[in-house]
Design goal:
Layout: H1 2-66, H2 73-79, H3 84-99, E1 104-111, E2 116-124, E3 138-140, H4 143-153, E4 160-164, E5 169-177, E6 183-192, H5 194-227, H6 231-242, H7 244-250, H8 263-309, E7 323-330, E8 338-346, E9 349-357, H9 361-378, H10 385-398, E10 406-414, E11 419-425, E12 431-433, E13 439-441, E14 460-464, E15 470-474, H11 490-500, H12 506-521, E16 530-537, E17 542-548, H13 552-568, H14 573-594, E18 599-605, E19 609-616, H15 643-651, E20 654-660, E21 663-671
Helix pairs in contact: 1-5, 9-10, 13-14, 14-15
């Protein structure tokens, strides 16, 4: 008996001696790990917070620069006065400074020779404590700032961020460039970094408190755990788990007797409950699977609905030969946020849109529907596409609780003249391919995104297309597609593929690009929607006519008709002058000498020539056989008449006459050289 008691005492003593070092080691390990995690977390937190501040300042500077018209800045420096446009931009800058908690936002011209900065705009936030500068105010800049400006001017950096360690501010500088790529001014955004230091100190205090709490809680848990009788209840639970399959088959649950009134008892009760729930789960699994299939089917229907909203029948206008168009959209998810659209504004104008909604999935798709509808509804209401985007932006901003935005490019092509009017709201720049077969980036100024900020004014542009020219537009999912090596497809590769396939029609070009894109991406997951659109302007013979009664009053009518036609068709000045001379001479002869009661003039223009066709019911007369005047004689010696027809013969490329159906029919043809300056 004595030996038994001694054995039990030794066992308890051994257990206690074993528990103590294990307890101490565990607490030490927990403290060490928590301290290491706290140190690493502090540096990661501080760096992330610093980068966040820099990124916010960078984004604000870039957005401000994109909304500034470079050509207007020097005007304000010269006049030192503010107009309505200046005040509007200043109000926008002031709003941004207050909303984004920027100490200072300025736009200035840098004079490197005098090491001065001349301010055009300067606004300060309500809490900055600074005073704004007037137009034309100058201050000196240090070498650090001049180095930043030199880097930007040389194109080495579009954006430069640096911190003034001496006073706790971070400053971002972004260039404003003219059409030639020259830096005309800079945007500076200054943010106070006091919150960064405060956040760092608070983080240290929280880490220390957390480590103390972890140490205390760990000690309490360990003591409670070791004092409780947990081995036997856990063994019971283990035995019960081994027989789980058997009990599930007969629908019963094992009885687990646990005397402890603690977490182990709760675990035992939970174990019993789990048996029942697993059985119910198995019975419901088929129902859940069926529901998942139903949701998948609904998403598939949603994808089909979205696809049906986009023009997908090609060719879309089989009776129109002035252009060829093809477009595709491949969503990253079941439904996407990209969209394209094209439609006839009227009989002579084709509109097309390529856009990208922020985000993915169903929310982006719904916002896409709204944006697509608004753009289409407003196109045609204004000749200026800038006004279209201005109105659409204000409508989207008024009901944009989710703070989504749209990048969009819209163009309206005049099918008669080839004139392309366009507007860009933060979208990718398109590629243009001339008849020489070389695709080049069409560098257009990107305005602010749609739905990003109310009150933005958008500006449109114009480019002239010739028959055979192509426009290729796309979403950022194309150049930003990535392979498994995290390499981007990129603009350079896209441009190369476009050049390689420049002879292909739009319907052939887009699949070729998609095939090359798929080959590059490989097995990598598609993370963004991919949208592409290509238009080829074919042009057509332009034709118009006028029927008049030949008299003196009709001469002015015919002259005005010809002037407006030649101007609308942008006929080169040299050709237009020849045409006007021919019309004046020939129609004057019809009025004064033919005795005609009806006359008709038909004008036809193709890519290479311009033709005039004169028809009248007057006396038969063939001007091609008329005797040429002797131009070597003086005006007094020369016979009257014939000089006008002689002049027409000299300036025209071809002259043809016939008399048919009781009418004089005279055709006059001119060569139309597209390289000459237009009216």
């Amino acid at each position: 008996m004595q030996n038994g008691e001694e054995y039990m005492n030794q066992k308890r003593k051994f257990t206690k001696s074993l528990i103590r070092p294990i307890f101490n080691a565990l607490i030490g390990l927990i403290m060490l790990l928590s301290f290491a995690i706290g140190i690493v977390g502090y540096f990661e937190f501080a760096d992330a917070l610093k980068q966040q501040y820099m990124q916010i300042a960078n984004g604000i500077a870039e957005n401000v620069a994109l909304g500034i018209e470079p050509g207007e800045l020097d005007k304000y420096l010269e006049s030192k006065t503010a107009d309505d446009e200046y005040n509007s931009i200043r109000e926008q800058l002031q709003h941004t400074a207050n909303a984004e908690d920027c100490s200072v936002i300025y736009i200035a011209k840098v004079h490197t020779d005098s090491k001065e900065r001349e301010y055009i705009y300067n606004v300060v936030s309500k809490t900055s404590g600074f005073s704004p500068y007037d137009i034309g105010f100058r201050d000196e800049v240090n070498e650090e700032f001049l180095n930043v400006y030199d880097s930007i001017s040389k194109g080495e950096s579009e954006l430069h961020n640096f911190m003034y360690a001496r006073n706790g501010y971070t400053t971002s500088v972004y260039p404003i460039k003219d059409g030639g790529g020259n830096v005309v001014a800079i945007v500076g955004v200054v943010k106070n970094m006091e919150l960064l230091d405060t956040a760092r100190n608070n983080y240290i205090v929280k880490i220390i408190l957390l480590e103390v709490i972890i140490a205390v809680v760990s000690g309490i848990i360990w003591i409670v755990y070791m004092r409780r009788r947990i081995v036997m209840p856990i063994r019971q639970l283990n035995d019960a788990s081994l027989g789980m399959v058997e009990h599930l088959e007969d629908g019963t649950a094992p009885e687990i007797l646990v005397k402890n009134d603690d977490e182990i008892k709760d675990l035992a009760d939970s174990f019993s409950t789990m048996y029942h729930e697993i059985g119910e789960y198995i019975s419901k699994l088929e129902t859940v699977t069926a529901e998942k299939e139903r949701i998948g089917a609904e998403l598939d229907v949603a994808a089909k609905i979205q696809t049906s909203m986009l023009p997908c029948i090609f060719p879309p206008f089989p009776n129109r030969d002035e252009f060829d168009i093809y477009a595709t959209m491949d969503p990253a998810k079941e439904v996407g946020g990209d969209f394209y659209d094209f439609f006839m504004v009227d009989d002579d104008h084709l509109a097309f849109v390529v856009a990208d909604v922020s985000g993915k999935g169903v929310p982006a798709a719904l916002f896409m529907v709204i944006g697509k509808t608004l753009i289409k509804d407003h196109t045609g209401l204004h000749d200026d596409l800038g006004e279209v985007f201005t109105e659409v932006n204000n409508i989207l901003c008024a009901s944009n609780s989710e703070e989504m935005f749209i990048t969009a490019f819209e163009g309206v092509l005049n099918l008669k003249t080839g004139e392309l009017r366009y507007v860009n709201a933060g979208h990718e720049m398109p590629f243009i391919c001339r008849k020489n077969g070389v695709y080049e980036p069409f560098k257009v100024k990107a305005g602010f995104v749609l739905a990003g900020m109310e009150g933005i004014r958008y500006r449109s542009g114009i480019v002239q297309l010739q028959p055979g020219d192509k426009i290729f537009q796309y979403s950022d999912g194309v150049p930003e597609a990535m392979n498994r090596k995290n390499e981007q497809y990129g603009m350079q590769r896209l441009g190369k593929v476009l050049v390689q396939n420049s002879k292909k029609t739009p319907a052939e070009l887009l699949p070729a690009i998609k095939a090359d894109l798929d080959a590059f991406v490989g097995e990598a997951e598609q993370f963004d929607d991919i949208t592409m659109l290509c238009i080829e302007f074919s042009g057509k013979d332009k034709k118009t006519d006028i029927s008049v009664t030949p008299d003196k009053d009709s001469i002015k009518t015919v002259t005005e008709f010809m002037e407006s036609t030649l101007e609308e068709w942008k006929v080169p000045m040299k050709v237009a002058n020849k045409v006007q001379i021919a019309v004046d001479e020939i129609y004057s002869n019809i009025v004064y000498y033919s005795g005609a009661t009806n006359a008709k003039i038909t004008v036809t223009s193709s890519d290479e020539k311009l033709s005039l066709l004169f028809e009248d019911d007057g006396i038969p007369y063939n001007p091609t056989t008329a005797k040429e005047p002797d131009v070597t004689l003086s005006a007094e010696e020369r016979d009257i008449g014939g000089l006008g027809i002689f002049m027409v013969k000299k300036i025209a490329a071809e002259l043809d006459y016939r008399y048919e159906n009781g009418k004089n029919v005279l055709a006059v043809i001119f060569s139309e050289r597209k390289g000459e300056s237009a009216r």
